[in-house]
Amino acid sequence: MALAPLPDHYRLPPFDEACAPRRLLRLFSGKWITMILHTLHLLGGGSRPGQLMRAIPGLSKKMMTQTLRDLESMGLVSREVRQIMPPEVVYRLTELGEVFVEPLEMLYRWGADHAADLERLASPAPQTDLQDR
Fold first, then answer.
1. Threshold 0.90, pTM exceeds
2. Pairing verdict, β 88-93 and 77-82
3. Distance between CA atoms of residues 70 and 118, nearest Å
């Protein structure tokens, strides 16, 4: 897939704090932000907390709650409480959240296509012991 070139003001340094690429990287820099957005997208746009935790091994309840609150305050996720007994909470991608899922899905698809390269990157280089020389 060919992307249009970046506008000139994003192709030449300096890259100021408020530029769109830096703001996007800051948004996606949280450890669980991209995985939660991606998972909500895969689950049809919404999920109950338990289902979300089961879908993302390693995500603690505390981190999930904190990340969902952050995403809610950014306007990317909404929290709906259904007043039944017991109350039921559902987190959903907002319209804005759906917009931000698009580049994530492109990145995740690239990762799947380049899994072997990522594996090589993650593999530590063999250590050489200087005493053996």
1. no
2. antiparallel
3. 29
